[in-house]
Amino acid sequence: MTIKEGDRIPEGTLAEYVQVETDACGLGPNPFKVGEQAKGKTVALFAVPGAFTPTCSEKHLPGYLEAADQLKAKGVDEIWCVAVNDPFVMGAWGKSLGVDGRVRMLGDGSGTWTKSLGLELDLVDKGLGVRSQRYSALLRDGVVEKLNLEQGPGLNVSDAQTLLKQL
């Protein structure tokens, strides 16, 4: 079953690589309880098939970085990027693109949470394993208000500007 608008996101744990230790987060991978982190927040969530891949690195993530201030001005508390990659890869990818805290880079290493959404993408025949479909979602207090699922390759409906217009 695929998640849809009006549904509550499933519980799950993602991992975030923290590069600067704080009182709240230790250095390195930290568990990220999705339900707890979404509670009481408006979240712009987008998912990509993989870190360091061309469309994801050249368009998808950079679009959210460029629109971060506009999204926050329209009431978004946090921007989350999810990929079926480990937190070390997500941290390195964010560092390489200068994310600098504007987007939370969240690894779903085994794809467990992605599968619970029904949004996995089987790329085993291409040697890439099971990944995430490309999508964006607007979450309010853990409920999917908007879901923009790409219906094939490319970046047509899950970009930051589409989500910005939906706010």
UniProtKB/TrEMBL annotation:
UniProt keywords (A-Z) are: Antioxidant, Oxidoreductase, Peroxidase, Redox-active center
- Annotated coiled-coil segments of the chain: none
Checking InterPro entries in the record gives:
PRX5-like (IPR037944), Redoxin (IPR013740), Thioredoxin-like_sf (IPR036249), Thioredoxin_domain (IPR013766)
- Family matches, as PROSITE patterns: THIOREDOXIN_2
Enzyme Commission number(s): 1.11.1.27
Q: Name one Pfam family in it.
A: Redoxin
Q: What enzyme class is recorded for this protein?
A: oxidoreductase
Recorded catalytic reaction(s): these are: a hydroperoxide + 2 glutathione = an alcohol + glutathione disulfide + H2O
Q: Which GO terms describe its cellular component?
A: cytoplasm
Residue intervals of the Thioredoxin domain: 3-167
Q: Where is the active site?
A: C56 (cysteine sulfenic acid (-soh) intermediate)
Q: GO MF annotations for this entry?
A: thioredoxin peroxidase activity
* GO BP of this protein: cell redox homeostasis; cellular response to oxidative stress; hydrogen peroxide catabolic process
Protein family: Belongs to the peroxiredoxin family. Prx5 subfamily.
What's the stated role of this polypeptide? Thiol-specific peroxidase that catalyzes the reduction of hydrogen peroxide and organic hydroperoxides to water and alcohols, respectively. Plays a role in cell protection against oxidative stress by detoxifying peroxides.
**What is this protein's record name?**
Glutathione-dependent peroxiredoxin
Q: Tell me which species this is from.
A: Pusillimonas noertemannii
